[in-house]
Amino acid sequence: MSDIRNWGLIGYEMLSVLIPFFITYVILYAVFKKDKMRNKKRNLIWNFIFAVYIFGVLHFTGAGTLYNIKMYGLKINPNEINLIPFSGNIDIVEYVLNIILFIPLGFLIPLIWTSWDKWKSLIIGSYFSILIELSQLFNTRCTDIDDFILNTLGAIVGYCLYKMLNRVQKKDIKTSYLEIEPFIFICAMFLGRFFIFNEFGLAKILYKF
């Protein structure tokens, strides 16, 4: 029974991310409805994989939500903020995990949005990491500049892996899209979870406490 409840929470969290994704996708698709956008099926599949990945990152990092603000208030604990790079205890495993976490982002971005270069991948990695770190001001997790640096590095590593693989396969499938599309998707999914996902509210119902 406990496992079912846990899966219920995860399913609820996933829907709070995927529903905004599909709404955004339909709106963006409507923009290109008159265009002959090639590989529509491929585009949808990879965008969905991207959305599931974004959900995984938000879930794993425990990004803050509106309901965290209601629970903890807007009081920011200075002890939970680190703005000096690599000034604390060095945890190699945690550092490596932070890099690995954002490697798929750096790989998927140029794969889906084919004209994106390494600098745009760096910007999107930084943007997503900043969203997560700022949201963690609203819950009990630490907002750490180390995470920001390592996440951004992970996005660059992912981009380099994509370029290496692309050279081997010599493939470059072009798709039609808005230049800021990745930002729109990430923002929509982040805000969906921020406003919809009430973890403790559902937990109270499921576990009756």
UniProtKB/TrEMBL annotation:
A Pfam family matched in the record: VanZ
Residue span(s) of domain VanZ-like: 50-165
InterPro entries for this protein: Teicoplanin_resist-assoc, VanZ-like
Segments passing through the bilayer: 12-32, 44-69, 95-114, 121-139, 145-162, 183-207
Keywords: Membrane, Transmembrane, Transmembrane helix
Highest taxon, organism lineage: Bacteria
PANTHER family tied to this protein: MEMBRANE PROTEIN (PTHR36834:SF2), MEMBRANE PROTEIN-RELATED (PTHR36834)
Protein name listed in UniProt: VanZ like family protein
Native source organism of the sequence: Clostridium ragsdalei P11
